[in-house]
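Long-time lurker. I teach an intro course on protein structure, and each term I like to show students one example going from raw sequence to a predicted 3D structure in token notation. This year I'd like something fresh instead of my usual example. Would anyone be willing to generate the tokens for the chain below so I can use it in lecture? Attribution to the forum is fine with me.
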Amino acid sequence: NFADEKELVAQARKRLPSEVQLLPAPWGEGDELQLNMKLATGLDIGTMIYRIEAAKPEGKDVWHCTTRGLVTANGANSVSQVMCDKETFAPIMSLWRHSMLGFAEAVYSDDSVRIKVEGKDQPVVIKFTPPVFDNEQAMQLFRRLPLKVGYKTTVNVVSSLGSGEVKLGIEVPEMEMIETSAGKFECYKLILNIGQTFWISNDEHRYVTRFSAGGVTADLAKIAPLTGDGTVQGDGFSLALPKGWRDYRPDASADDKKKAIFLLDPDAIAQSSVHSGPLDSLKEEERVSAKVWTESALKELKKAVKDFKLRGAGIEEIKVGDQTGVTIVADLTEDGKKMTMYGLAVLTDKLAVNLRFKAPADKFEELKPAFDSIVKSLNVE
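-- Reply from a regular --
Happy to contribute to a lecture. Here you go:
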């Protein structure tokens, strides 16, 4: 979509930020930061993955910002993309999709932005005085600000889904030490006038190590290279993710026998996860075979959803490495929407593993090759 807009990069270069001074990009050719979210109680509720990389659509040098989010508490899936000028960081285009809130697309010109929101007949055009930035590039923008104790500025930010412009007040009152599973960092504490706080590392990388907003705190869990093998290693199993997929692992307490790893597709369309636990985490009658376990699970599922119907032969056997598992594909209605689910169950003498995929019925066939590749890659010890 971005590559079709040939003149947009040239236009963005004209909008040189005159009020907000930016440091050189601290991420080299790009990086990826994963921050995992918790409530004040310590309950894990999801993850946010921020990726930025150099790109060259139509031969133009740009930064491509991607944000992938998952809130496990309500199943909310989100993804956004912003293409911005590599020199000025001015936004060129943005896309934003949220499974509950909808879809929005914004195209920027010299002094305005045209926003098309799903469900609205007419686009919204917002006039602005440059410089402005897109809300979905804000995390990367914070990394480029010349922060110091006492720093204050105001940044104009466009929210595409809200179809509005916000004056974002920013100040840095102090430094703080932040320790997460990714390391220990001396950070600038960056406070916004909208009730959000961010901590940016005082080093050459300028990592976002923590953010706090609306009763949720997210800590930096992973710093990833732009290229990775996509291998997910669980307790007693492993699998390989297709290109662009990511994983999220909530913290499990020592008392939790069953563990879940969420699998995030790049377009935020599906709900995917792998669940595992010792054999004795199942009911005694379910431990007989993968088929019996699946039959028991389906019996409970039918009580919770509408219009449930298995496809094809129903429960079918499949080889999973050296193990025998079973798969099902079924159609159902959930919250008034037609959905299709795909499941795999494998039992060994010690372990129970279950892969689950669910997608809108009209998107299922498009996603099934990716689902199949994950199923095929599963190796259970």
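Some talking points for your students: Residues 13-18 have pLDDT under 50 and may be disordered. The chain has two domains: 27-224, 231-380.
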